[in-house]
Design brief:
Elements (H helix, E strand, L loop, with lengths): L7 H37 L9 H47 L14 H9 L22 H7 L4 H8 L1 H10 L4
């Protein structure tokens, strides 16, 4: 059960061996990369020989331009394909979440907006009408009915009772006449 301990000289020797092997591997990897790069460049990018005539030079420019266009088309196609794939992945993620049924509602922040700001957010720059709700309200004048006015202007209640007391007062109340 006891672990055998290595001596420090043995550890140092093993460490130096590992470092020398790793150094050799790194050097071979670097040379392999350089060889691969030079081979790729020789295959795909031949040496440039500039023609002396202007017609030949224009032909070379046309060839390079066509190559650039083809490469741009390939790049665009790959870009569209990758964005399409990313959108499909997003849609599938949403479907998976819906199928699981464990959709968490996001916490909504309380936002204070006026009606103008809300319409401007919804309609964008099209909204130019100022929506002042208070300005659109109708002005209503309060009409005071005559009966309510008489009730307010009664004054002393004893006098009112005396006027209505007896048959004369009742008759006046029904006829609407004056005392």
């Amino acid at each position: 059960m006891s672990e055998k301990k290595m001596s420090s000289s043995r550890k140092y020797h093993l460490k130096s061996l590992m470092l020398s092997i790793a150094k050799g591997l790194l050097e071979t990897e670097i040379t392999d990369r350089e060889e691969e790069k030079s081979r790729y460049m020789s295959e795909n990018c031949p040496s440039l020989s500039l023609p002396s005539g202007s017609q030949a030079l224009m032909e070379l420019c046309r060839e390079i331009h066509h190559k650039i266009e083809r490469i741009d088309e390939e790049r665009y196609d790959l870009e569209v394909k990758s964005t399409k794939g990313a959108n499909e992945i997003d849609d599938l993620k949403i479907k998976v979440i819906d199928l699981k049924g464990k959709f968490k509602k996001p916490v909504l922040r309380k936002v204070r907006m006026s009606a103008d700001q809300m319409l401007q957010a919804l309609l964008g720059s099209k909204h130019k009408v100022n929506l002042d709700l208070r300005a659109n309200l109708k002005q209503v004048k309060k009409e005071v009915k005559e009966e309510e006015k008489e009730l307010r202007d009664v004054g002393d209640w004893r006098k009112n009772i005396e006027d209505k007391a007896g048959m004369d007062g009742r008759k006046k109340m029904f006829e609407g006449g004056e005392v």
